[in-house]
Design brief:
With 111 residues, the protein is mainly β. It is built from 1 helix and 9 strands; from the N terminus they run H-E-E-E-E-E-E-E-E-E.
Length: 111
């Protein structure tokens, strides 16, 4: 299934009007035909595996997005931060230990 879906997803990402950025992680839903990706542009994108259609995009501008994965719900994902921030006093870079949850709108719901 992975090898069949990737060309469609890559084509959808190239054809999207927003920025094209490398994908740093992806996950397939266990029961639904959905794929979620996290990109270096801090975008979390939801795709249909059957058609390769881009369904929705959510952004995590403050913390970035990496290691995205689905939860038990088909429209909820969790992800980790990929941003590095500098310690105010020591001047030593440290990784922000923050993660988040995103919920995608139900199909047909008003945004």
């Amino acid at each position: 299934m992975l090898l069949q879906a990737l060309p469609q997803v890559q084509a959808a990402r190239r054809g999207a009007q927003d920025s094209y950025s490398p994908i740093n992680s992806l996950d397939f839903h266990l029961r639904e035909d959905l794929l979620v990706t996290a990109g270096d542009d801090d975008a979390i994108k939801l795709y249909s595996v059957n058609t390769g259609e881009h369904k929705q995009t959510n952004y995590s501008r403050k913390y970035g997005a990496a290691h995205v994965c689905f939860t038990h719900h088909e429209r909820a994902v969790i992800y980790a931060s990929n941003k590095v921030r500098r310690a105010a006093r020591a001047g030593v870079p440290r990784v922000t230990l923050c993660s988040g949850e995103q919920r995608f709108a139900e199909p047909g719901a008003a945004r």
